[in-house]
Amino acid sequence: MSTIVATENLSKRYGSRTVVENLNLRVPEGAIYGFLGPNGSGKSTTMKMLLSLIQPSTGEVQIMGQPMTRSTRRGQLGRIGSLIESPPGYGHLTGRENMRIIQRLLGLNDQQIGFAIATVRMQGQMDKKVRNYSLGMKQRLGIAMALARQPKLLILDEPTNGLDPAGIEEMRDLLRRLAEGGVTVMVSSHLLGEIDKTATTLGILSGGRMIFQGTRDELFSAATPDVLIRCSDPHRAHAVLSSGLDSRLDRTDVRVPGIGEKATAGVIASLVGEGIGIYEVRRDEETLEQVFMGLTEGGGL
Fold first, then answer.
1. I need a labelling partner for 185 at 20 to 30 A (CA). Which of 1, 83, 194, 292 fits?
2. How many domains does the chain fold into?
């Protein structure tokens, strides 16, 4: 699968503060790329650098195999749609009037405008003033504006932010349909459950650094779930292990977090050596949220 977005050691510093550090981003063509991270991790800054809205301190951005620079920006943006921060649109105008402005600015035809409106399913709302739209409708109008030029790449920063469950479901369906239609979508979100339901590839930032990039299955395999040990005397087993490990009692089990296979074998051997019978050893099942918290060392969203 070819790569539609790539960065090489991309960094952004403001004085002594580093916001993004040596980021090597890879967005596969045709993917829904879920861009995750705690607040302040550098997601929005990265997206703005991809669009050349702010210039990197070091490193470079490539879009569709070509560098994104001041000189190439105009041509590159003709193939990219984006929705960053607040949805665009003049509140005192109707949705249709706002789309006409986009049409004149970009030199688009009626078919392109009609296609964008139909894609976000806004045909019945275009004669209403934008100030009377719900937040979900404003988001969809913003995406229609981004889609009007029929881009190959769509970059969305928190498109479900502030939406109710019905609006989130609509947005999720829209992203899937766009990807099925050949548009690569890069979307940032703090809603892990929503990203888990839509994204085909994940990238996780923490402190401006990429700490994971790959598929959902690869994310779970990269994590180290807790080991749960069921034994004949859990209290004594906990006492034996607590001197060297961060073990704790979990109902009838002893829970030992963050140890690999070799360490697990050593733990079992030490318990058996103390005369403690081992009934069962298993890995705990983790949710995407738990994996995320572990990778970001408990960083909140």
1. 292
2. 2
Residues 25 and 111 in one domain: yes
Taking the mean position of all CA atoms in its chain, how far away is CA 60?
Answer: 21
Q: Are residues 120 and 250 in the same domain?
A: no
Tokens for 260?
């690999």
220-238: pLDDT as tens digits: 776 677 899 999 999 999 9
Radius of gyration of the CA atoms of the chain, in A = 24
99 lies in the same domain as 174: yes
Domain that holds residue 260: 225-285
| DSSP alpha helix (H) spans, 223-260 | 234-242
Q: What is the pLDDT of residues 72-109, one digit of tens each?
A: 888 888 889 998 877 888 999 999 999 999 999 889 99
Backbone angles phi, psi at 22, to 5 degrees: 50, 55
Per-residue confidence band for 1, with pLDDT thresholds at 50, 70 and 90:
low
Long-range contacts of 191-194 (CB under 8 A, 24+ apart): 191/160, 192/36, 192/288, 192/289, 192/292, 192/301, 193/288, 193/289, 194/160, 194/168
Q: Is there a domain that residue 149 lies in?
A: yes
Q: Are residues 21 and 155 in the same domain?
A: yes
Contact between 295 and 223 under an 8 Å Cβ cutoff? The reply is: yes
CA-wise closest residue to 134 among 106, 166, 178, 179 = 166
